[in-house]
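REVIEWER CHECKLIST
Item 1: Sequence provided? yes
Item 2: Single chain? yes
Item 3: Sequence as submitted:
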Amino acid sequence: MDVIQLNTLIIKKDTNNRLSRGMRCYKEGLVLDVKSMADREYGSLDIYGKVMSENDINVYNINLSFDIKKGDLIYTECNCIDFENNCDFNSTYICKHIGATFYKFVEAVEEKKKIKNSSCENISEDKEIDKDELAKKIIKELMGSIQYAPTGGNKRKLEFTIIDDCKEMDYFRLLVRDEMIKFIVDCVAQTYRADAAGISESTNIPEEFGTKSLQRVSLCALIENETDVVLSLGDIGKYPTVGELADFILESE
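Item 4: Structure as written out by the authors:
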């Protein structure tokens, strides 16, 4: 399901004509943050956002949930007055902040497509590829500088993008995956105060370090802070090894 189909779904739910106001909020730059998480197993797409009020006093937290398999918008949430006054009668009510978040999500999707296309269009089928140089170029363009500070200091957001249609796809996927595994290892080591040298891709986190909820919350928060992928406590059990958790995060980006 592409953004055009998603847009059609959200228009159908706009019973109070709030999308035009949402577009105005979006154009005024009031959307502070947007991120999304797709679950291929359950066929769901969740979009999360933070939108500033027009008077700069409040920041509203937004959530939209789509059932991709059924092709439907199944849940919306915002803590603004308009939404709270109408959500009891409509579980998919659209306020202007939800609309603004959706439009920012569409912008992010289109921007990623442009970057991906520009990275792939210069690859010639007849020319031998210098894998190392091309890897550096694509990683720089798609993900920015892959840096993190698991033990403190200035942090820069990690932005991971799976390359779907570039030649030599598997080579670049492995490069990105290696960086993610190193990142997860450092997060686990910091959370459980363990030696990173003893943690590997095959390390089973619950078996090695226990299942205490407080530590899982800390691990999820540390990963989310760097990747913008929202993890639940159950995800640590569902994807117990470092490698499985890394793959899940990469697929969710």
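Item 5: Key structural point noted by reviewer: The chain has a mean pLDDT of 79.
Item 6: Recommendation: ____
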